[in-house]
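Morning!

This is the sequence you dropped in the shared folder:
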Amino acid sequence: MNAFTAATLVSYLFVMLVTWRERGRFFAMFSGVALGIFTLAVIGMQSQLFGLLHYGREFLVSATYLHFLLLVWPRLRSWPVRLLVNYPASFFFAGTLLGWPFAIAVSLGASFYWFVVPYGFALLGLLESLYTPETVRDVVLDRQDAGVLRRYPLGKANGGPVLQVVQITDPHIGTFMSIKRLAGICERAVARNPDLILLTGDFLTIESNREQYALDEALAPLAAAKGKVFACLGNHDHEAPHHVKRALAAHGVRLLVDEAEVVPTPIGPVQLLGFDFHFQERERKMGEVLARFPRPEGMMRLVLLHDPGAFGRMPAGEGDLVLAGHTHGGQVGLVSFGFPWTFVSGLTKIPDHGLWARGPDRLYVHRGTGHYGFPLRIGVPAEQSLLRIQRG
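The structure's back. Tokens below.
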């Protein structure tokens, strides 16, 4: 066993022992699996990494272990910590996990320069995780029977009346989404002067759950659009519900938790129906909500539903357009290269991004304002869209 292997194993064991002692068994097991895969990969690829990264390898490995160690005492970190620890660690962790197939190829005789590919993707992901482009998308509700759940073309508005909506979902205040960055996104949303601003959940992360007023500060610009801003809850919002509900109420954001409200808009009254995130018995609970709030005849209904996987639990005809998030657009895929494929759509039947249809209903899955979980977005950029919704 060489010195690098020994130091890497000792670092891994130290982080796991501290995590077990300070955060308990469950968190230690979760971190242990993720960091364990990374540790085995780094040890297995060390000879190739010497050639590719040379002097930076030890720094990147150390930053990754320190990044996981800091999660034992989660809180929002200052920009020097993010710049010197979190960002390099996220880049190296993601690139190393993506490098497994290339490690096998190198072991069979391929050039170690093939490792440029996974780390190149990781570098692209680092940039995509720090930038949220603004777009305009037309969603034409043609009410055609699309049959089974499938991707559906967005269409093109024909010059008639449109409902302009900005959706913000999955900002996940944390390593890559600072309070200042989210406040800027909210400012730009208000500046676009939409008819509605709709928030579809997952505002915080493990790093911001204990920061009592972080979300209050980040959402402050939305107060300028009071009366036009509505929200539903996501799964992570149930980890710190008091912080989320207080921050929304502080700025006049109407939170819809399994309830509906009719709001005036330039195209006439629109019913907004907001579902809570239900972990169990989704179909039954959603059915009860729909029974309490029947769809007004002739009125457009927009449904706020954090998890697009629950779209299939709704009876057909219950929503002109369902707005969802949760998937972060698939987070890892080929969207940046013009292809719709992502790991989510490739490995599951859950809608990952863009417009989907089932029967007469339409589902728009926002790629997410931020991200969480896997350290980076890779090939799936974040989204700041102005949706121009038109009845066909």
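Headline: The first helix runs from residue 3 to 23.

More detail when I'm at my desk.
O.
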